[in-house]
Amino acid sequence: MTVLLVLLCVALITIIVVQVGKVTELASKIRGEEEMQEAANRRHGFYLMAFMILFLVATVVSTLYYKNYFLGYGPHKSASAHGGTLDYLFDVTLFFTGIVFVITQILLFYYGYRYKAQRGTKASFISHDNKLEIVWTVIPAVVMAFLVISGLDAWNEVMADVGEDEEYIEIEATGYQFAWGLRYPGADGELGRKDFRLIKPGSNDLGIDWNDERSLDDFLPNEIVLPVNKKVRVRITARDVLHNFYLPHFRLKMDAVPGIPTYFVFTPTKTTEEYRQELSQYEEYQVPADPTDPESPMLWEDFNYELACAELCGRGHWSMQKIVRIVSEEEYEAWKATQTPHYEQLIKGTDDDPYKEDTVEETTEEVEESTSEAEAPASEEETEEAH
Ligand SMILES: [Cu+2]
Predict the structure, then answer these.
(1) Same domain (yes/no): 320, 243
(2) CA-based nearest residue to 69, from 252, 318, 285
(3) How close is the Cα of 256 to the center of ligand 1, in Å?
């Protein structure tokens, strides 16, 4: 029904436009073509100027009005150690492109107004102007060189991998249609081996190799929890198509490519709680998170860092979201202690468990042990060997 109405409106508007055109044509025949044309030119010139002023004012006003929602401004200052560098680059780029934007918009519309066709005036013909060409080549070249060089500099700084004896936490994120598989190393601090051929939907979505002992304590949480002020290295991979590991508040964005592991090193500098406190200083965030429910928590209380997918990867792309919590070191350790290794949870004792035989042996031996004391020392040795 709505579609029909819209189509009807479009048809009617078209008819009106055509009719108005016909009327103007007739009127111009009566009043003289040239005079009509000149009046129209004056009118259009005026419209152009009006549009330019409205457009520029609206741009500036809306930017100022919404600035506390933008990443990099108001309460959305970066929450990672390297983020400030990137915010600075954005500011510098915005400064130069902003100047160019305003100047070109003004010139574009002003020229339309100033040089509208008028009776008796003739366009001047300039074949070329060396001075002008040098100016518009050299200025952009210098500005571009400055932007590109400072950009490269920042890239080298931000993309630096962890040093040899540096202390860091390594976690892994695997993108697939349509979720993120997160993996944390257990107590050993090391992630186990992975092989795509071992992927088994349901029990081993990431293809973890259980023969690698480092895998046995790895756990797969549903959210990213990290301690503040600690260096984190994220291994980023994908299982099917291109995804993109995006932590907007930390200015972190890296493609997740099937077959080519990428990484990103960053240090969170604000806990979720600290970020909420900063948000609470701004009016925009002192409203109920749910506009239909005045009893719901404030927008700032409801805030959470998030992990999103920033690569349009298919129909369920929008759902590739996870909560990120930055907490104190103690809270992090406490959270880690509540996590169960995936191996213990789903694999141990099943057909996928490469240590199944050992486990079965162990239990039978334990039984034997309790019945016959003489065999006990031998079985203990055996168990040790098996590990
Ligand atoms: Cu995706």
Answers:
(1) yes
(2) 285
(3) 8
Q: Cα(278) to centroid of ligand 1, in Å?
A: 30
Cα 245 to ligand 1 centre (Å) = 8
**Lowest pLDDT segment from 41-50, 122-131, 274-283, 349-358:** 349-358
In the reported structure, the alpha carbon of residue 309 is separated from the centroid of ligand 1 by a whole-number distance in angstroms of: 5
Ion ligand 1 residues within 5 Å by Cβ: 243, 309, 313, 320
Residues whose CB falls within 8 Å of the CB of residue 262, separated by 6 or more in sequence, listed in order:
236, 237, 254, 255, 256
Distance CA 224, CA 182 (A): 8
Q: Are residues 206 and 331 in the same domain?
A: yes
The predicted model gives 206-233 an average pLDDT of: 89
pLDDT exceeds cutoff 60 at 360: no
Centre of ligand 1 to C-alpha 200, Å, is 20
What are the structure tokens assigned to 195, written together? Answer: 């092989």
Report the amino acid identity of residue 297: P
> What domain range includes position 263?
169-345
pTM equals 0.75
Q: Is residue 15 part of a domain?
A: no
pLDDT, position 386? 41
